[in-house]
Amino acid sequence: MATEPATTRRGELPPELDDPLFRQAIGQFDGALPNAGIDPFVAEVLRYPERALSVSIPVRLDDGSLGIYPGYRVQHSSVLGPTKGGIRYDKAVTLGECAALAMWMTWKCALLRLPYGGAKGGVRCNPRNLSLGERERLTRRFTAELLPIIGPQRDIPAPDMATDEQTMAWMMDTYSMQVGHAVPEIVTGKPLSVGGSILRPEATGIGVVMVVEEAVRRLGTSLESSSCVVQGYGKVGAVAAHELAVRGARVVGVSDIAGGVHDERGLDLKALDQWRDEHEGIAGFPGSQDVSNAELLELPCDVLVLAATENQVTGANAANLQTKLVAEGANGPTSLEGDEILGERGIPVLPDILTNAGGVAVSYFEWVQDIQRLFWGPDEIRSRLADLMGDALSRVWDLSQSEGLPFRRAALVTSIREVAEALEARGIHP
């Protein structure tokens, strides 16, 4: 006699996924469903990740002691192809956070029509307290624990918070040693010497500005007459700030983890970079005014780029923003409450699954180049990136106009429909 399976009721989250960021991702998904018009069964399948792996990572530390670190890898959907997503090292990494980021990566890949599903992984640690050798041992052991579920046709990791080209080289080497030959296509974001791609480190920031420039043009102005504030002067934000300046924008404020600087006349970014290198931060930059991260978000500007971390614009501060356009360079920087307030105020938001998709786009280019063992130059990569980002923005913009949807809702609806169509075509096995 068949028994009813133990399932989660609609609207409830499994306790292991009950995390603020996953609730945010689910809230966005549920909000888009009435407009997406997909089968309720398909929607229920897409609410949860296909697979989640939790591991314990033993690491011999430099002082001879043993550290045990929790690690996770979540694969949200493989309907469109192998899963793709970053690896982060951070004190706040949880399974639920990885699940949220994996879901957003699914929508991001679908929006750009890449043959990928979404994944995300991470290790809960304080990377600032680990030596280079400790980070290498942590990375190699974590990679070994992931071997059952990763592969160039299964799941392809990439860099994220506190991970970089060196981290990916260690992952690629560890995987390659297990199979007996070099497999550069197992990860993306690697150094050029082991199969990395030109422009991959800068791709997310470049993509942000490509989207912003076209959106500003469609809104009837131009970057050349725009003042911009960039929160998060790191791997994404610093590149975006320089790209904005090259295209004629006036970057009046930027911030890093310790705080920010503001100059209404426009910051000299080359001089700021030199100051940061010499002083381990941007605070105190001559000729500018120091501001906190909270104050930076509320500076008057035409474009506010959020390139730091999640939940920066919330119900507590969204009413105080003095910008005409928000561009999400980070994942999940605007909470559900903040999004609602910005919508009520008529401030458009270029959502993360569109605006910061340049990184996964060039990761896709890197993967394709590695498989072919044929590499492209910077002009070709920049041109291909512009085509992908421009096409995605056009489809989101057109849907937003035709159905009267805010940009985030239009982007989610576009992505959900892409994945749902593929899922319905493939069916459920068995």
Structure description:
There is one protein chain. The longest helix is centred in the last third of the chain and has 26 residues, at 378-403. A hairpin with a 2-residue loop joins strand 7 (250-256) and strand 8. The mean pLDDT is 95. Strands 9-8-7-6-10-11-12 form a 7-stranded mixed sheet. It has 430 residues and is an alpha/beta fold. It has 2 domains: 15-190, Rossmann fold (3-Layer(aba) Sandwich), CATH 3.40.50.10860; 203-350, 3-Layer(aba) Sandwich (Rossmann fold), CATH 3.40.50.720. The protein has helices at residues 20-36, 40-46, 95-111, 132-146, 165-179, 203-218, 237-246, 269-279, 293-297, 336-345, 352-355, 358-372, 378-403, 407-426; strands at 51-60, 66-75, 83-90, 117-124, 155-159, 227-231, 250-256, 259-262, 289-291, 301-306, 323-328, 349-350.
Count of the domains? 2
CATH class of the largest domain: Alpha Beta
The CATH homologous superfamily of the largest domain is named Leucine Dehydrogenase, chain A, domain 1
- The averaged pLDDT comes out at 95
What order do the helices and strands follow? Answer: HHEEEHEHEHHEHEEHEHEEHEHHHH
CATH architecture of the largest domain: 3-Layer(aba) Sandwich
Gap between N and C termini:
20 Å
User: How does the overall form come out from the CA principal axes?
Assistant: globular
CATH fold title of the largest domain: Rossmann fold
| Largest β-sheet summary | 7 strands, mixed
With strands numbered from the N-terminus, the spatial order across the biggest sheet is: 9-8-7-6-10-11-12
What's the helix count? 14
Relative helix content: 40-55%
Low-confidence stretches: none
Secondary structural class: alpha/beta
